[in-house]
Each structure stands twice: as structure tokens, then as C-alpha cells.
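ingest -> fold -> write
write: protein_1
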Amino acid sequence: MDNDSTRKPASAPTSYIVIPARLASTRLPRKMLLRETGKSLIQHTYEAARRARKPRGLCIATDHEEIAADVRSFGGEAVMTSPDCASGTDRIAEIASRMREVDIFVNVQGDEPEMSGQSIDRVIELLEEHPEAPMATVATPIRHREQLSDPACVKVVFPIHCDAAGRLSGNALYFSRSQIPFAREWNDSLLGAEPPHFYLHLGLYAYRREFLAKLTRLPRSPLEKLESLEQLRVLAAGYPIIVGVVSESSSGIDTPADYQAFVRRMAGKQ
């Protein structure tokens, strides 16, 4: 008969980072291989992801040999995936199907070279702390009006709960490119409110391995098509997404201006 003195503590779930990377990109051609800093953009993202402490490892999932060759040149692991994958999530699901020993897969997007290791660790912790959630992501407070009104900056609303350690989280209600929640009467002081009214969704996700297979089979929802936000497919299908609040904000690289701003920030750190 089992008792408290003989029961072994449950082991922590095993986690692994996958960075999806494709060569084709509309607004910034071949952006993964841009190297004005002396390193390719995908190398910057790989090195940023390596700062996370929880994952057992990481790889870059690509369908293009030119990216794979660049990854191998700086000592990273490149895994070839099917050219038929429609999204980064599909690439991660293909990797997950080969790695059945891993419980949690983290999606660090290839154009997020400044994603912090702490945020990656936090998104993993969210699934460790919330066994009912199949998927997790993170958000950070919005303090500037320009960011709030920018459709390229995705916003998220969720009821906020505080745990014993003072960390904030809650299940996502909705993601949008529009301002949410919408203040009927605007005042600039709303941007400085505590707790914050507005949250920027960061492009970082963690999934349970078994959920990835379900996710790739879910049909695209009308809301997903309308806003062009894949995470709305999850909510439309009735699955929860747990959102954790982090203090740092990373900047994805989508346009030439984004990349030049990143190059200037890197130069400032030298």
C-alpha cells in the first residue's frame, strides 16, 4: 500500500525549444539570414533562446537547406521539416511527433532575437503550474499610446490572478490587433494605471505535446481568418490559453525599419 513516506515526488515535465524558421518572408525578404550585426538574425534568436534554464535543449526547424547550413555554421542544431508545413506551429508539431519523450514544446519565433530567457522559463512554468491548460503564452503591460493603436502589436485581455509568489496570470479571453479593452472615455493616465489596463501579447508559446497534434487538425475559425491570429483558433475550439505577465518586452522583426532598429540596439551594446 502506498503512503507518504514511500511515494516518490512527481518529476517536472520535460521541455524543449523549437525555433521555426523559413526563408521566404513578404515584408522583409530572407530576413532570417540578414547579418548586418555580424551574425544572422536566426543566430541571434538561437543565442537568446539558449539563455533559458528550464528546457533540455533546442533546435531550429526549417525546410530550407540555406538556413540549415547557416545554423550548422554557428554550432546550432537544424532539423529539416516538410515544405508542406503551413505554419511554424505545424513545424513544431512535426518535431513533437518525433520526440515523444518531451512533455512541453516551446515556440520561439525565429524573428524574436531579443526574447529573454526568463520569459521562456516563465511560459514553461505556466504549464507546470496549470495542469488543466494545454497551451501558455506571455504578455507585458502597454505604456505607450502608439503601441496600443498599432495593429502590428497584438493585444490580449484576461482576468488577472496573483499567486503566492506575486506572479500574475489568467486565462485569455481574446486576442486582437485592435485596442482591447476599449476605453469609452480616454485619458492618458489610463496607460499608467496599476494594475495595467492594457497588455501586449508577446510571440512566445508553450504547448503540451499531445495538444500540438490536436491543434494542427483544428479548422481555422472565422475570427482567426479575420484577425490573422492563429491563437484565436484555440479559443474558438474551447481550449484555454493561460497568459503570464512578464516585465520585459521583446520586439519581433517584421519590416526593414524593425531590422535597422535592432541593428542600432546591437551596436549600442558593443
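write: protein_2
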Amino acid sequence: MLRRPGLADSLQRDFRVVIAGPTTLTAILNSLQMGFRTLAIEQRSGEIQQLLGAVKTEFGNFGEVLATTRKQLETVANSIGKAEVRTRQIERKLKGVESIPVADAQRLLGPADDQEAQ
């Protein structure tokens, strides 16, 4: 068939038939296999692209949550700093006051919170 000029081209063009012999069959099958692999990769790349888009969106949301958390932590740190300043001020004012035994302090002020829980 291949010796007749134009017959193979005509069959392929008109009837979409590929002529294969023992020497070309392996090459044609390898070509088809590579085509199917390429098609599968293209389909998976679309899925991967969508997945990456979703991850990007969620990562943006994560950044916003992280910024909010940072602001809240800064607020807590500022509150603790203010409490430490007040504690030092109170300690300076009470520097000259004499301490009394713990039992007398508990009787006057009531038990501490950590002792109430026990």
C-alpha cells in the first residue's frame, strides 16, 4: 500500500485511517500513549490551578485573621504593661508600710481566689 503514491495520504485524509506495519506499529502506539498522557496532564493541571486559586483565597483570609490576632495580642500586652506600671506605683506607695502575718491578712481581706477554688 505504501508503494502506491498518494494512497496512504488519501486514506488518512479521507477516511482517517492510519496504515501501520510491523515496523511502524510500535511508534504509532507510543505516540498515542504520549498523547493520552499529555491529555491527562492537561486535565489535572486545570484541577491543580483551581486548587491553587482556592488556597490563595484562603491564604488571604488567613492573613486577615493573623493581623486581627496580632492586634489583639498587642492590646493584651499593653494592658499587662499598664498593670505592671500600676503595681510598681502601688509598691512604691506601700514601701514604708509594715507587713502583717498571712493569717491576719486573710482574716482582714478574706481568702485569696486561688485558695477559694481548693
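write: annotation protein_2
The chain has one domain: 7-94.
Residues 7-94 form one domain.
pipeline exit 0
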